[in-house]
Specification:
It contains 14 helices and 14 strands. With 424 residues, it is α/β, with parallel strands linked by helices.
Length: 424
């Protein structure tokens, strides 16, 4: 039976990343070539094995973070231990058919690479940088996760991706070089497609759509009660800026917008968490601050529950309108016909909204003001009936594009995978 290793998974606690993995697996297994395939996910979150119904193994990211110590120590551990040890393991395995000694986690990961028939880098938007200094190691870690596939002679595919931007030319050149040996690169929006067209990769590039468009909603056990206000507006907020002052400005302006919705619009605002990780990236922490800054007015619901991707999608469908900073919360809403105003912290947000024909319903997170949010919401409210009709027409095509991502990989693998066996 064919064995697929999905790399570059982050954490199912980010419900957007979880939805991508679920959509990928469903799409790949629906193809005749990969029907019934065994799927293993290499995840940065070691607890993801409890959240998926398929096996999960460590990733280089999780192995790096398992070492006690700060960020610099983690980086040195990857550069001086994990990277050279894994490359040497792969070369010896491929040339001599032998396993070198390795710590348990690394040995488990390397054996999974060795036993897989194809390696698929998870869809998403992780191949980017925001500065010339910060994030260089993480970019290298992300690239190494699929570079290991072709070191072991496996066909490697990049599922629907957003790629870039890059803060420095050498970072862009590094990614470009790492993509040269892959069998296929798939993008999930035209901005990334245009970037790769300029790179002139030898590998084929196909534009698809985000795999999260493929999942179906499921009702959670707990549902926030309605207050009787209208419209019911779902919202997501997040931590993004490294600069505390800029983050505080964003939260303050969103809080002012919440006051506008509840006091002048009579709306009910439901603050939903897409990411619940009990750490700095936890959306609930930001939502609590926004609610407090708004004075916790009547009509504001702060949802603290830890929902699964399908459950969060179900809740998004129950909103009349949506205003999301987290891109996948917008995808959950839009995929089920709920008009959404997107707050863009990266170009991928604008690219995906443009793919949907909704590029004018995007506000940049940098410099966001309550006034701009109110104006954008006014337009969303005014044009909601037309947007719903538009979504009814366009979402089936987007889902077909998302489905095509798995089909393209399966069809290509059929041309190289016949008779393929794991590296001895």
């Amino acid at each position: 039976m064919t064995r697929i290793l999905i790399t570059n998974a982050y954490s199912a606690l980010n419900r957007g990343d979880g939805a991508i993995v679920l959509g990928m697996v469903e799409s790949l297994r629906r193809t005749p070539e990969l029907a019934g395939a065994d799927v293993v996910v290499s995840s940065a979150d070691p607890d993801d094995g409890r959240r998926y119904d398929f096996p999960v193994v460590p990733s280089f990211h999780s192995l790096m973070n398992a070492l006690r110590g700060g960020g610099r120590l983690h980086c040195l551990y990857f550069l001086l231990v994990l990277l050279p040890a894994s490359v040497l393991w792969a070369l010896v395995r491929r040339r001599l058919g032998r396993d070198l000694p390795a710590p348990d986690g690394l040995r488990t990961l390397m054996r999974e690479y060795s036993s897989s028939d194809l390696v698929v880098a998870a869809g998403g938007g992780y191949l980017y940088t925001t500065s010339c200094v910060h994030g260089n190691i993480m970019l290298l870690v992300h690239l190494h996760t699929f570079v290991m596939g072709y070191l072991l002679g496996k066909p490697v595919y990049l599922y629907a991706q957003s790629i870039g931007p890059f803060a420095a030319g050498f970072q862009e050149r590094l990614v470009r070089a790492a993509l040269r040996p892959v069998r296929m690169v798939e993008t999930r929006e035209h901005r990334s497609t245009e970037l790769l067209a300029r790179w002139r990769l030898a590998s084929p590039v196909h534009e698809a759509a985000d795999a999260a468009f493929l999942i179906s909603p499921s009702a959670p056990d707990h549902v926030p009660e309605k207050t009787g206000r209208s419209p019911r507006v779902g919202m997501t907020v997040r931590r993004w800026f490294r600069d505390d002052r800029r983050q505080e400005e964003y939260e303050r302006e969103v809080a002012r917008f919440v006051v506008h919705l509840t006091s002048e619009r009579g709306a009910e605002v439901v603050l939903l968490p897409q990411v619940a990780v009990h750490g700095a990236d936890d959306d609930r922490r930001v939502a609590r601050r926004v609610a407090a800054l708004s004075g916790n007015p009547d009509g504001v619901w702060l949802v603290e529950n830890d929902f699964q991707p399908r459950e969060l999608q179900w809740l998004c469908e129950r909103m009349d309108l949506f205003v999301g900073t987290r891109m996948h919360s917008n995808i959950f809403a839009l995929s089920l016909g709920v008009p959404a105003l997107a707050i863009a912290y990266q170009p991928k947000t604008a690219g995906i909204m443009e793919q949907l024909g909704l590029g004018e319903l995007v506000l940049p997170m940098a410099g966001l003001t309550a006034g701009r949010l109110a104006a954008g919401f006014d337009r969303l409210y005014r044009e909601a009936p037309a947007i719903r009709e538009h979504l009814q027409r366009v979402i089936p095509h987007i889902r077909e594009a998302a489905e095509r991502a798995g089909r393209l990989i399966a069809e290509d693998f059929a041309t190289v995978g016949a008779g393929r066996r794991p590296v001895p």
